[in-house]
Recover the amino acids of this structure.
């Protein structure tokens, strides 16, 4: 009897310890973001205080005002939306169509073609970015939207992922649509896409988040500040001035806020979408 | 009658298949296959944007890279970063995954909070950490001062700056690795634990004898992913240390930065391509190793 009670106490102690450690982790995970906001909204005189003030003595938006007047950060934001949005739509169209074709049709050289796509999954972008850049020069696409978007129009991971998912669609369903007089593109639009909605939207989230975070290619292919995406604009912003952490944190807050809002609403989908992309790096 | 209908459907299907495949493969060709092939060719050529005529130079580019002190500095930093990141982030991710699995009601909360840094963008996160690492006014040194620890120059000197960037990267990717491991943990059959309990195993024995061996394949997977990501690391190094007036430290040179600088800042496309080839061989070796190890499982 005594030992059971002992066990019970031990169990509760263990649980408490688990939560204590996890809560410490929570603070470490969130704290940098709280500190970012706190620095951004405090008056300039309080930024470099020791001991630091977590809650500013009054709200001061001047860091934000300075950022907005010194760099076209809203334009950067729109550039990011355009680049990530168009890129994601392209990836979804090309991956869904190609994935469907590989999943549900038989044609010569199917395996070879599929492995050709799959093989590029393992090749990092950094390996072929130099010839891609010289191609952009030849096409005159340096410093243009099409230049930034171009390499992000296709995804070998997306093709592979949607092929795997679409293989599960029963052939009878497609044949039934054919008997009803539906063309192949009609089958794709009216049968395959609605059924695969969940996996397509997961891929959409994954592609959008990846494209939004893209840094290296925009750095290479953009010349003018007008064409910067948000990530690039933010990195260049810190090179413009002697370090002013208040302004930098205002910029970082502006860039992080949309991510926080998206995460609050689409938490489950985002986590699933990103971990689905586990095979990609 | 049926035959005629069947063959016309077949024809229609071929038309559809090829009208999908031809444009996609053109895109894959232009964006992937041709540039990949060109990197290989360029690594044997000498050219730049000002003098675009390409001259075949044999292995000269490789020789230039392999005798360059900067390449070895970059290689050394990258490998150090990789080893340190794997050594820290895998055990930590395992530890927190097991704890989160243990927590019942609050689990979605923990998952979301730990995952958030993964989707926050690298540059914003790097700026925040740069501010927290600040030698004089940074929050981290302030907190350390409570314990009587002297201010640390987190970004001021070479090995320390690399370690600081590594710590930040571990923080940013912890949630991602943890979520992948949680998928693995959820897949473990409860009967294993029940059997272990009947045999009188305590919590730690269950972890060592049941959880860890069963998680081995997925742990291997995130190890390899972390290795590959570390080999490719660029953004955090660029944003944290390169050419910024505010950072007192010198640049922490990594392989991708080295390639970037040679190709796009110094216009040495040939040597840059040769270095990209070397990096690719490294990635290929790691990928082959992964397949080998996964097969053994």
């Amino acid at each position: 009897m005594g030992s059971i009670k002992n066990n019970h106490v031990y169990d509760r102690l263990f649980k408490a310890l688990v939560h204590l450690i996890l809560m410490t982790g929570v603070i470490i995970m969130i704290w940098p973001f709280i500190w970012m906001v706190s620095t951004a909204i405090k008056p300039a005189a309080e930024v470099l205080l020791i001991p630091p003030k977590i809650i500013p003595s009054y709200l001061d938006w001047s860091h934000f005002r300075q950022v907005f007047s010194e760099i076209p950060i809203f334009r950067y934001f729109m550039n990011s939306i355009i680049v990530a949005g168009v890129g994601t739509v392209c990836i979804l169209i090309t991956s869904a169509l190609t994935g469907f074709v590989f999943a549900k049709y038989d044609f010569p050289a199917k395996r070879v073609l599929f492995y050709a796509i799959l093989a590029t999954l393992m090749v990092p972008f950094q390996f072929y970015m130099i010839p891609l850049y010289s191609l952009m020069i030849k096409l005159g696409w340096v410093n243009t939207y099409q230049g930034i978007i171009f390499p992000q129009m296709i995804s070998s991971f997306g093709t592979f992922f949607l092929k795997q998912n679409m293989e599960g669609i029963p052939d009878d369903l497609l044949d039934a649509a054919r008997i009803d007089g539906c063309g192949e593109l009609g089958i794709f639009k009216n049968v395959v896409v609605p059924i695969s909605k969940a996996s397509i939207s997961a891929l959409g989230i994954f592609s959008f988040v990846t494209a939004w975070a893209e840094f290296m290619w925009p750095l290479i292919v953009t010349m003018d500040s007008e064409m910067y995406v948000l990530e690039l604009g933010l990195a260049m912003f810190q090179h413009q001035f002697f370090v002013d952490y208040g302004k930098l944190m205002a910029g970082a807050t502006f860039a992080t806020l949309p991510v926080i809002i998206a995460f609050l609403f689409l938490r489950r989908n985002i986590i699933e979408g990103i971990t689905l992309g586990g095979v990609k790096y | 009658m049926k035959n005629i209908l069947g063959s016309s459907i077949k024809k229609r299907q071929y038309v559809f298949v090829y009208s999908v495949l031809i444009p996609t493969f053109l895109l894959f060709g232009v964006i992937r296959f041709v540039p990949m092939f060109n990197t290989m060719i360029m690594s044997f050529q000498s050219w730049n944007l000002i003098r675009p005529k390409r001259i075949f130079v044999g292995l000269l580019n490789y020789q230039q890279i392999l005798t360059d002190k900067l390449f070895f500095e970059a290689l050394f930093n990258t490998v150090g970063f990789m080893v340190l990141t794997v050594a820290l982030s895998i055990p930590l991710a395992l530890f927190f995954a097991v704890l989160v699995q243990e927590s019942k009601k609050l689990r979605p909360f923990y998952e979301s909070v730990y995952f958030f840094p993964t989707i926050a963008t690298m540059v914003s996160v790097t700026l925040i950490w740069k501010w927290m690492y600040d030698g004089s006014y940074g929050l981290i040194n302030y907190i350390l001062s409570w314990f009587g620890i002297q201010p640390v120059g987190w970004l001021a000197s070479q090995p320390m700056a690399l370690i600081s960037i590594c710590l930040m990267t571990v923080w940013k990717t912890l949630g991602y690795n943890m979520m992948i491991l949680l998928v693995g943990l959820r897949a473990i059959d409860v009967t294993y634990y029940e059997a272990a309990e009947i045999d009188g195993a305590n919590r730690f024995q269950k972890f060592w004898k049941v959880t860890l061996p069963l998680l081995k394949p997925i742990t291997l997977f995130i190890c390899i992913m972390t290795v590959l990501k570390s080999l490719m690391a660029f953004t955090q190094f660029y944003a944290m240390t390169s050419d910024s007036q505010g950072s007192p430290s010198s640049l922490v040179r990594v392989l991708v930065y080295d390639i970037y600088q040679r190709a796009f800042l110094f216009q040495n496309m040939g040597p840059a391509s040769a270095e990209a080839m070397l990096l690719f061989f490294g990635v290929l070796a790691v990928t082959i190793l992964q397949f080998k190890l996964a097969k053994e499982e």
About this structure: Chain B has two domains: 2-42, 60-296. Chain B touches chain A through 93 residues (CB under 8 Å). Residues 244-249 of chain B have pLDDT under 50 and may be disordered.
